[in-house]
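Dock AR6; give full complex structure.
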Amino acid sequence: MGKFKIEKGDITLYEVDAIVNAANTTLLGGGGVDGAIHRAAGPQLLEECKTLNGCDTGKAKMTKGYLLPAKYVIHTPGPIWHGGDNYEDVLLKSCYQHCLKLGESSGLKTMAFPSISTGVYGYPVEQAAGIAVSTICEFLKWTEVVEEVIMVCHDEHTLQTYQRALNEYLEESRM
Ligand code: AR6
């Protein structure tokens, strides 16, 4: 059973086994957290990403962390929000699940996630937070490998939304 934390910060500064990148399906970089991770990791990250042949939405692929304090980067393309009737919730949950399973099968003990899809991809953070929190907490109940998952929120609104989602999840699981 692992621990779950929600913090405000910059994920590129986290010294964990793996940070997760909210990427796009090309895996060749972009703006937002993806741009920040590529800048901090240096050009070797892009070189490795070029060998991966992209990644489907909802799946995940891992690279080394290069100049980052994190050992590895797990890249996952989140769903683009198209109103909510296009399997966005299924795909977002799948992102978290694939990243967590990849971390576990690679023997990682500590992982940090950004709020996948809630920036450029437009997923409403209130809905995304519920999916992220429940998927991570369910996984942490049974894993014997991953010891800690940190949700790294870049701004105050995102932080408060994830904290509220965690409180709601804990209340519901007590009922
Ligand atoms: N640390 C933690 N979180 C961050 C950081 C950071 N350094 N920088 C931004 N965020 P976004 P998406 C937050 O747009 O919505 C890229 O171009 C940000 O405030 O990075 O999944 C990709 O290449 C927000 O809360 O990712 C794709 O094309 C969250 O990270 C597309 O954007 C996600 O915002 C992916 O869009």
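Observed: The first strand starts at residue 3 and ends at 8.
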